[in-house]
Write a structure and sequence with these properties.
Elements (H helix, E strand, L loop, with lengths): L1 H8 L3 H53 L9 E2 L4 E2 L2 H32 L2 H16 L2 H28 L5 H4 L9 H24 L4 H9 L4 H30 L2 H6 L17 H8 L6 H36 L1
Antiparallel strand pairs: 1-2
Helix pairs in contact: 2-12, 3-7, 3-9, 3-11, 4-7, 5-7, 7-9, 8-9, 9-12, 11-12
């Protein structure tokens, strides 16, 4: 009886090994948790650092110009009189032109690849679209300046002028001498650059639609257009909107390609043919030449404004996605 009691008091090897294994797993789990939390905190630290740096660098310009910086069209480095309105206007207009072109084309490409394209062509076309996203932006800029802008000047702008010359409002938007470079050309280049993001993401989310839904729609006689309109797009709208917003964010911040083809003029014109500028193009063009605290600070404040615009766009996108998810629930 006493021997049995002694055996039960001593831990058996199997129990000891299991306890050590569980302790080791728990330790690894805690280390993994701490590492992932540190990674998340690093993102917040970097973001906070960027915001603090932009605000601190913008203080001289904010003190010098105040809120009037946002609505002033002045840009004179000699007299140190600066305003952000032409750059903000160019950024928004070129991005809107890009999205008006890229969204329908991108969704059309995704529809063709998922519903209409022969299987033998799906992979080559898909790879070609993804390769467009990998081309450096400066290549788009050089191509736009030497190839695309002359084509626009010769074949597109004269046609638009003659087509909309007698139409109210549109005659002002498509007016002026056909320079080739300008906000319309910059919008076209941006559309080409964001097209792979919208097309690839839309194609990927379209492929997530359960086949049974498509088969049911086809079974009741839906055409391909009706299948996309009433089944695929409603089912994947969250992902499609996310892809569009990702493309819009890329268009708002694109620098080199736009700098080559927009004309870099600090003025506001109702015509899309007129030269203009964007926030990123202004910073890229003039930061190395900025002399004086106010000039440098004005460029940094432009960066802060671009940051705020991008944040507002992403916040609106997130709000839209939350509303859609809430309605779908």
């Amino acid at each position: 009886m006493s021997e049995l009691a002694m055996e039960s008091a001593v831990p058996r090897p199997a129990v000891v090994d299991r306890t050590k294994a569980l302790s080791s797993i728990a330790l690894l789990d805690r280390i993994f948790f701490q590492v992932t939390r540190a990674a998340a905190v690093i993102v917040l630290v970097i973001l906070s650092g960027v915001i603090v740096s932009l605000v601190h660098g913008s203080l001289p310009a904010i003190k010098a110009f105040g809120p009037g910086f946002l609505i002033s069209q002045a840009w004179n480095p000699v007299t140190e009189n600066f305003g952000a309105l032409p750059a903000i206007f160019g950024t928004i207009v070129t991005s809107l032109v890009a999205m008006l072109i890229a969204v329908p084309v991108g969704i059309g490409i995704a529809t063709f690849l998922t519903e209409l394209c022969p299987h033998a062509l799906r992979r080559p076309i898909g790879v070609a679209i993804e390769l467009l996203a990998g081309i450096p932006s400066i290549i788009y800029g050089i191509w736009g300046l030497f190839v695309f802008a002359p084509f626009i000047q010769t074949h597109v702008q004269p046609g638009l002028i003659s087509l909309f010359g007698d139409v109210p409002v549109l005659s002002s938007i498509f007016a002026g001498p056909p320079y080739g470079i300008g906000m319309l050309t910059a919008g076209f280049i941006l559309a080409i650059m964001v097209l792979p993001f919208i097309a690839s993401i839309s194609r990927d989310v379209f492929e997530t639609v359960p086949p049974v839904l498509k088969e049911a729609a086809i079974g009741v006689g839906c055409t391909t257009w009706e299948l996309m309109r009433y089944v695929v797009l409603p089912y994947t709208r969250v992902g499609v909107i996310g892809g569009i917003m990702l493309g819009l964010g890329r268009a708002l911040g694109e620098t080199m390609a736009v700098t080559f083809v927009i004309g870099n003029a600090h003025k506001i014109s109702p015509s899309l043919f007129a030269p203009g500028t964007t926030i990123s193009a202004t910073i890229a063009n003039e930061f190395t030449e900025a002399v004086g605290d106010v000039y440098t600070s004005a460029l940094i404040e432009l960066g802060l404004i671009l940051f705020v615009i991008t944040f507002i766009v992403l916040a609106i996108a997130r709000y839209m996605l939350m509303r859609i998810e809430r309605k779908s629930a």
